[in-house]
Specification:
By secondary structure, the chain is of the alpha/beta class. The protein has one domain: Alpha-Beta Barrel (TIM Barrel), CATH 3.20.20.370. Helix content is 38%, strand content 17%. The strands form two sheets. It has a seven-stranded parallel barrel with strand order 1-2-3-4-5-6-9, surrounded by four helices. The chain has a two-stranded antiparallel sheet with strand order 7-8. Helix 6 links the parallel strand 5 and strand 6.
């Protein structure tokens, strides 16, 4: 597809009457959506509504499993969660969204871990392997969205399944290519123009730029904008426009991307 890249967002992260983000607006911009599966956010009605909206907009969908931690939005570390248990926690969440999506005739195509679960699996190979096992035993054709240069990428490669390597439009990077902790100043980018220019540079250079200006070479298949980031809609719109101005096509291939 030439210069083609996926633009994704974490969506469906409301719960009951509590609302998070403007999913309706973001779904008009992105090419794939990672839908919360009820553990860190989301519920059956929110999941169904998000799938319906994504289908109407022609947006591909995937499961966004996290820790069972509604109170902490899945962003608190839960070191006591055993990898053997994580396999079934993730399997449960993928299965829940897959059933709803199948009923609405808009099947899921990928899986992307959320928050603290993803952060743990980036550095903890047993946790990464647990996510991989859950994906493989649920549907080995599902594409695994992973951060490059992490244990997530290594586990995905070892699994032999399809994967897509992801960068973040609205997060800062350390010099080793890991994400700057949200507890640190400057970890989240809010200036849409700065973020868009940085994304275009990263996809053109095949490297992420750290908070200190260090360029870390990585393969890039998909770009994430967090739906709960303040100004997310404007940021996603600016990123898409900047990519298209730079000659890139925004589209979800939803298939295996060569390792």
């Amino acid at each position: 597809m030439g210069n083609s890249v996926d633009l994704n967002a974490d969506l469906g992260e409301s719960f009951g009457d509590w609302r998070m983000g403007d999913d309706e607006a973001i779904l008009k911009i992105v090419s794939s959506a990672n839908v919360a599966c009820g553990f860190h956010a989301g519920d059956p009605l929110i999941m169904a509504d998000t799938v319906k909206r994504a289908k109407a907009e022609g947006v591909a969908i995937g499961a966004h499993p996290g820790y069972r931690d509604l109170w902490g939005f899945g962003r608190r570390a839960l070191p006591g969660e055993k990898p053997a248990d994580l396999v079934w926690h993730v399997t449960y969440q993928i299965g829940a969204l897959a059933a709803i999506a199948a009923a609405l005739d808009h099947p899921i195509g990928h899986v992307k871990a959320h928050g603290a679960l993803s952060n743990r699996a980036m550095a903890d190979r047993p946790a990464a392997d647990a996510i991989g096992r859950a994906i493989t035993q649920t549907d080995p054709k599902l594409v695994w969205y992973v951060l490059p240069a992490t244990e997530l990428e290594a586990a995905a490669e070892a699994s032999g399944g399809p994967l897509a390597r992801e960068i973040f439009a609205d997060r800062a990077y350390e010099d080793d290519g890991s994400l700057v902790s949200r507890a640190k100043p400057g970890s989240v980018l809010h200036d849409a123009t700065v973020a868009a220019d940085r994304v275009l540079a990263m996809v053109e250079e095949g490297a992420v730029t750290s908070i200190n200006g260090v360029k870390v070479p990585v393969a890039i298949d998909t770009i994430c904008v967090h739906g709960d980031t303040p100004g997310a809609v404007a940021l996603a719109d600016r990123v898409r426009n900047r990519l298209e101005q730079g000659g890139w096509t925004v589209a979800c291939r939803n298939q295996s991307i060569a390792a």
